[in-house]
Amino acid sequence: MKENGEKIEKVLIREDERVDDLQRNHYQIIQKKKGFCFGMDAVLLSGFAQVKERQLVIDLGTGTGIIPILLEAKTRGKHFTGLEIQESIAEMAFRSVCLNRLQDRVEIVQGDIKEASRIFGKASFDVVTSNPPYMAGNHGIQNTNQVKAISRHEILCSLEDVVREAALLLKQGGCFYMVHRPRRLVEILCVLREYGLEPKRIKMVHPFIKDKANMVLIEAVKGGGAMMKIEAPVVVFQEPGVYSEEIRTVYGY
């Protein structure tokens, strides 16, 4: 098949997979019909992260590749890399990159977060993002599906592993963006500072305006000064079944 004179290779979609519209640049993403799929946390992180023109970006634990693909659509960064340890998930993310013909802009690498600085080299990126596993140790019931369990529980890497490698990967003055659970915020801030990443912006996410926050978005700067801003919170639903204006903007509705 050809489009505008360019040969387009057919991308494999397996029987247990589906293709979802990302509402951005006509991009699509491949996901398992019954497996782990990206959530609102990844989409919110892609809207919270600030990527400047020609910057190099890496997403640690990229899963389906949703964050690099969305950041490529939303920003003017130069190149986007996704690091994923699970071979089958990394392969699926790579096929999503091919589906959107982004091979020259987005790269998926199979590898361990704990080895990220060795794989890519220290001070190699301007921006690091991560939507890491939220559950520490044995907290919470581990999903019997191994892919989901690895995505949700700190089985293959810890919070400290993610922060340490983010700090090593970042250039001086580079930014680290993460989405996590508010109940671990004190621990997160302590670990960030331990590795020279100064918290600069925090934004809480609430399902409804009267609900407690269930997610927190964090920006930290390598070598940044000690001043942090608490931004206005995100409220997901303005009423049951109706997204708020901010959420519609983030999703591109």
* Strand-pairing-aware structural class: alpha/beta
In one word, what is the shape? globular
The CATH fourth-level homologous superfamily: Vaccinia Virus protein VP39
Q: How many domains is the backbone divided into?
A: 1
Question: How does this structure look, described?
Answer:
- The chain is an alpha/beta fold.
- The two termini are 31 Å apart.
- It has one domain: Rossmann fold.
- Strands 5, 6, 7, 8, 9, 10, 11, 12 and 13 form a nine-stranded mixed sheet that branches.
- Helix 1 runs parallel beside helix 2.
- It is globular, with a radius of gyration of 18 Å.
- Helix content is 28%, strand content 29%.
Salient structural properties:
8 helices; alpha/beta
Question: Concise description?
Answer:
This protein is α/β, with parallel strands linked by helices. It is built from 8 helices and 15 strands. It has one domain (9-251): Rossmann fold.
